[in-house]
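can u do me a favor
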């Protein structure tokens, strides 16, 4: 996944299908938290922004299939094979989503805001498009970096994952969310923060 201005915003490591059993367990907790909040909203239309390989969208649509499930990213070259056939993908930037105001029941952006030069502008666009709910998540800092260091990853950058240019504590992400959303629920699967909110 790449940001529109050419910055690398992801890494080559498998995020949702990691070979390490501890990492798989952590990711399972993340997916469970996101899935629970997704099901809570009962959306008939969904837009995932910053979909990367499309694996999160694939797991969500298999939990509950809405009438329309779209996913977008600025670079769709890394889409996984054999994704659910009812998913539709398009190239789009979080800063300029090709959707009308209040046109999608649920808009989600998981593991996206930490890659943005201007996360407030990205969140503003998510809230503009959302009719009922916005679901966001970011790594929980500094725990994320400490866990990277504990497993010997990204030591030269003190555990910072390539492409992470914002670092959100739980309080910082909540403060950002509250600028555009009425926060409904916060989940804390280690080492992430997941927030469901209603657009203001």
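np, heres the sequence
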């Amino acid at each position: 996944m790449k940001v529109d201005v050419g910055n690398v915003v992801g890494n080559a490591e498998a995020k949702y299908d990691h070979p390490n059993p501890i990492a798989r367990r952590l990711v399972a907790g993340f997916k469970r938290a996101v899935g629970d909040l997704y099901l809570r909203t009962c959306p008939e239309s969904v837009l995932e922004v910053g979909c990367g390989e499309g694996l999160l969208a694939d797991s969500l649509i298999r939990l509950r299939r809405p009438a329309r499930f779209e996913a977008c990213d600025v670079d769709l070259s890394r889409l996984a094979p054999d994704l659910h056939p009812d998913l539709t993908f398009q190239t789009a930037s979080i800063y300029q989503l090709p959707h009308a105001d209040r046109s999608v029941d649920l808009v989600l952006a998981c593991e996206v805001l930490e890659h943005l030069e201007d996360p407030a502008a990205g969140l503003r666009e998510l809230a503009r498009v959302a009719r009922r709910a916005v679901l966001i998540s970011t790594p929980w800092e500094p725990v994320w970096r400490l866990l990277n260091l504990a497993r010997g990853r990204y030591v030269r950058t003190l555990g910072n994952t390539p492409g992470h240019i914002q670092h959100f504590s739980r309080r910082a992400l909540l403060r950002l969310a509250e600028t555009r959303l009425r926060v409904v629920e916060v989940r804390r699967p280690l080492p992430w923060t997941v927030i469901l909110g209603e657009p203001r």
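The longest strand covers residues 130-139. hope that helps!!
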